[in-house]
Automatic annotation (TrEMBL):
Keywords: ATP-binding, DNA damage, DNA repair, DNA-binding, Helicase, Hydrolase, Nucleotide-binding
Domain Helicase ATP-binding, first and last residues per copy: 289-462
Keyword ATP-binding: yes
Domain Helicase C-terminal: 485-659
Single Gene Ontology MF annotation: ATP binding
SUPFAM superfamilies in the cross-refs: Nucleic acid-binding proteins (SSF50249), P-loop containing nucleoside triphosphate hydrolases (SSF52540)
Name of the featured protein: Probable DNA 3'-5' helicase RecG
Pfam families hit by this protein: DEAD (PF00270), Helicase_C (PF00271), RecG_dom3_C (PF19833), RecG_wedge (PF17191)
GO biological process assignments: DNA repair
Classification via InterPro entries: DEAD/DEAH_box_helicase_dom, Helicase_ATP-bd, Helicase_C-like, NA-bd_OB-fold, P-loop_NTPase, RecG/Mfd, RecG_dom3_C, RecG_wedge
CDD domains membership: DEXHc_RecG (cd17992), RecG_wedge_OBF (cd04488)
């Protein structure tokens, strides 16, 4: 009898060296625990079909389908035959499987009527979707070649067929066979969940859940298994966040209370407009946080143009009034420079200490970016180090060694999703005591995401737009199906320019040269043309549909002074059209720009598109955003664009974005750089479960803050949310 396997047993002891190496190399699975927690992606039901029409080109898929017909024809360019096998899903969707070379045995094996699992990458040839040389396993009895797959068929004896996240070299049926081998001798770890929680929430035991998730005896048992394992994930995350929030309450921080008659009061008195009710309410929350003896850790979210910057500036002035400094970290030099100019304009004499005409108790505002000249940099860093600069704005250049603060009291992180955790933490570490932290984002965050990812932050939301902001109409332009619509889009842009307005044209790529962080790779390995590029599109527009208009170009590879000059020209009205990449995605504010045309819009994410279109309609004239795409009607890419065009509600779009992205990306798995066992939890679908897990976590941590009386639970939390993940969650 085999020795019992535990979560730590190396896979090579259980499935052999060759298979273990493939699992490790292609799927990062090394131990029995890794494999047992590698849950099926979905379950196909024998006799049921996979919806082939919903498959996306370029996707690595495993489909359950039935062979409809086979055809053999000689190849044109080389010797030998091509076998084409048409498989269907029973509802009209078909997929062509192609096999090169003389393979008569395969033709006999893949005869009409046979059901199988077929795995490969979806490509398109002459309008037909196909899998080239796919791996497959046939289901059912009899037929030539059956002996070769008999081992795999044993994995699919039940009605529900597990389909695993797989790799080309390790198809789902190989994983299923390995899971069976491991489960036959697997001893599950001690159930870490307190018995009281398990009973009150009606959760099955861990061992039962791990068996049923892989080899479900019924749909009901599968549901119970998934619920238990989701609970473990949610509970681990919530315990981590609640523990850290509990500890943070004891951290010392220097209070920065408001000072009557100070800079903040003077600033409010000279504001040229009235704050919205939302800005005032959030301002009160932040003011109270800053006055507390432990660090503020607050997330400020609001739609594009909701006035987050003014709220942040008021918080910065409160800290300066209390004798400290405030730093704002922006993701691009364009945005940092714009914040700098905007804040100087808003502050007026209050931001020009030491200059002629400055206010009596003024401070200084300094800009620190990587492109500063040596002399300007020395001067700016001296102002920061001495404390003369109360407000410091910059890019990641603020993080470099040699940038020292006299008394850093507040860190404001703008567009936090554009920064890595380590970058944000590096700025925070420049203070002697933990500074207060305000994280801003214009990407609306669904409540469950905020509760799960930002559970240790207080969340403030600005939902009200300031007076004078105009609505934005959005439409999809199907360039492939209706080229005349694209012609009309360019005419519409010219009409806006003739009316005295300005326009943006956005492309997903810069053009020739090394790849940039702001663009996708230029080569598409699914046979599609490369994404359109700024440097290629701009001259074509100048010679063609936008001939005679004043066109500027902006992208991340331009020198900083050139980028700044282009933005100044556009803001001053000296350019009619700005052809740009996503460098304009955040913070760019030109009220006279009323129309945006996004080329290859399907190459952008939902949140990006929502951010981009927020650049128009910032003045009194209505905004127009045209999303140009060659994506076919009914494709997931086209549906995504239709959804963006149908609503300006950022929270609805955030839900859609969440639905379409991998949960691991949202939870930070890809940013932490480590494997995580957070596999099943859906922030969109499991709202109630997450809420219940948080309630249980609060109760447990209040009674046992460090889980010393629950060592198995503490170990489970450490495994599910390792230290890197815990730090990611803590740093926000």
């Amino acid at each position: 009898m085999s020795e019992p396997a535990t979560v730590d047993t190396p896979l090579k002891k259980l499935v052999g060296d060759k298979t273990a190496k493939a699992l490790a190399t292609h799927l990062d699975l090394h131990t029995a625990g890794d494999l047992v927690y590698h849950f099926p992606r979905r379950y196909d039901e024998r006799g049921e079909h996979t919806d082939i029409r919903a498959l996306d080109v370029g996707e690595q898929v495993t489909v359950l389908a039935q062979v409809q017909r086979t055809a053999v024809r000689p190849m044109r360019q080389r010797r030998g035959n091509l076998l084409e096998v048409t498989v269907g899903d029973g509802s009209g969707g078909v997929l062509t499987l192609t096999f090169f070379g003389n393979q008569a045995w395969r033709e006999r094996e893949l005869r009409p009527g046979r059901w199988g699992l077929f795995a490969g990458k979806v490509t398109e040839f002459r309008g037909k979707r196909q899998l080239n040389g796919p791996e497959y396993v046939l289901l059912g009895e009899g037929g030539d070649g059956e002996a070769a797959v008999s081992d795999e068929i044993e994995e699919f004896a039940g009605a529900l067929i597990p389909v695993y996240p797989a790799a080309a070299a390790v198809p789902t049926w190989v994983i299923a066979r390995c899971v069976r081998v491991v489960l036959d001798t697997f001893t599950p770890p001690e159930d870490p969940l307190p018995g009281t929680v398990r009973a009150s929430r009606k959760l099955v035991g861990l061992g039962t859940a791990l068996t049923e998730i892989h080899r479900p005896s019924s749909k009901e048992e599968l549901h119970r298994a998934r619920r238990r394992l989701k609970w473990d994930e949610a509970f681990a995350v919530q315990l981590t966040l609640v523990q850290r929030k509990h500890r943070a309450a004891d951290w010392p921080a220097r209070p920065r209370p408001a000072r009557p008659g100070g800079l903040l009061d003077a600033f409010d008195a000279r504001l040229p407009y009235e704050l919205t009710a939302g800005q005032r309410d959030v301002g009160v929350e932040i003011a109270a946080d800053l006055a507390a003896p432990h660090p503020m850790h607050r997330l400020l979210q609001g739609e594009v143009g909701s006035g987050k910057t003014v709220v942040a500036l008021r918080a910065m002035l409160q800290v300066v009034d209390a004798g400290g400094q405030a730093a704002l970290l922006a993701p691009t030099e364009v945005l940092a420079a714009q914040h700098y100019r905007g804040m100087l304009d808003l502050l007026g004499p209050l931001g020009r200490a030491g200059e002629l005409g400055s206010a009596e108790h003024a401070t200084r505002v300094e800009l620190v970016t990587g492109s500063l000249g040596a002399a300007a940099r020395r001067r700016a860093l001296g102002e920061v180090a001495s404390g003369a600069a109360g407000i410091v704005l910059g890019t990641h250049a603020l993080l470099y060694e040699g940038v020292d603060f006299a008394d850093l009291g507040l860190v404001v992180v703008d567009e936090q999703h554009r920064f890595g955790v380590e970058q944000r933490d590096a700025l925070r570490s420049k203070a002697d005591q933990p500074p207060h932290v305000l994280v801003m984002t214009a990407t609306p965050i669904p409540r469950t995401v905020a509760m799960t990812v930002y559970g240790d932050l207080e969340v403030s939301t600005l939902s009200q737009l300031p007076r004078g902001r105009s609505p934005i109409a959005s439409h999809v332009v199907p360039a492939a199906e209706k080229p005349a619509y694209l012609d009309r889009a360019w005419r519409r842009l010219r009409e806006e320019v003739t009316a005295g307005h300005q326009a943006y044209v956005v492309c997903p790529r810069i053009g020739e040269g090394p790849a940039s962080d702001e663009e996708p790779p230029p080569v598409d390995d699914n046979g599609r043309r490369p994404p359109l590029a700024v440097t290629e599109v701009a001259p074509l527009l100048a010679e063609g549909p936008l001939h005679g208009l004043r066109i500027g170009v902006l992208h991340g590879r331009l020198p900083a002074d050139e980028k700044d000059a282009v933005m100044r020209s556009f803001a001053a009205g000296d350019l009619d059209v700005l052809v740009a990449t996503t460098v304009i995605e955040v913070g760019v504010d030109v009220p006279n720009a009323t129309v945006m045309i996004v080329l290859d819009a399907d190459r952008f994410g939902v949140s990006q598109l929502h951010q981009l279109r927020g650049r128009v309609g910032r003045g009194s004239a209505a905004g127009l955003c045209l999303l140009v795409s060659e994506a076919a009607e009914g494709s997931s890419a086209r549906e995504r664009l239709d959804a963006v065009a149908s609503t300006s509600d950022g929270f609805k779009l955030a839900e859609l974005d969440l639905e379409q992205r991998r949960e691991g990306d949202v939870l930070g798995a890809t940013q932490s750089g480590h494997r995580s066992h957070l596999r099943l939890l859906s922030l969109r679908r499991d709202t109630e479960l997450i809420r219940d897990a948080r309630a249980e976590a609060i109760t447990l941590v209040e009674d046992d803050p460090e889980l010393t009386r629950n060592p198995a639970l503490a170990a489970s939390v450490a495994a599910l949310v390792d230290e890197d993940r815990a730090e990611y969650l803590e740093k926000g």
